Amino acid sequence: MPGINQQGMIPVSNKLRIGGITANSVVDGPGLRTVVFLQGCPRHCPGCHNPDLLDSNGGREVTIEEALAEIRASISPITQGITFSGGDPLLQPEALHQLVVQLKQDFPHLDIWVYTGYKYDEVKHLPVLDLIDVLVDGPFEQDKKDLELAFRGSANQRLIDLPKTRRAGQVVEWQPGW
Hints:
Number of strands: 7
Largest sheet: 7 strands, mixed
CATH topology: TIM Barrel
Family: Belongs to the organic radical-activating enzymes family.
Keywords: 4Fe-4S, Iron, Iron-sulfur, Metal-binding, Oxidoreductase, S-adenosyl-L-methionine
CATH class: Alpha Beta
Helix content: 10-25%
Protein name: Anaerobic ribonucleoside-triphosphate reductase-activating protein
Distance between the termini: 40 Å
Number of domains: 1
Radius of gyration: 15 Å
Organism: Desulfotomaculum nigrificans (strain DSM 14880 / VKM B-2319 / CO-1-SRB) (Desulfotomaculum carboxydivorans)
């Protein structure tokens, strides 16, 4: 696996390092979802929800095609979306972009969510964000942990509606039912 570059992201590759894929999740976005857990995170936030996914060399390396086959197999007629979590999916932005391009072609009716510890302003230039519906941004902060928040762990994290954000030219937070 290539090392992490100066920006903290893994260079271009046609492979992803994943920790696992879960079908039928109801906690990682609205509705029934497939969740793809990508491996690697430089933050090591105290209280991390997925500490097994921190190691960039952990999990398993798969090709984009292998990941697509696993994700396709997890999609059912009542699946509402696909969520990428981790670790931090944006450590692998080019490979994630390749994967999401194909998923959008195969499943245009599904929404795509991505969880990242990066703030939106740090990653808004990444092409993959043009394909994502909701970005959950910001690192987990233990002192801001709030179990009452929908689809995030701490109050500093935002659910950003990326299509509306692009149209408005400023961050627009996602609201249920939009």
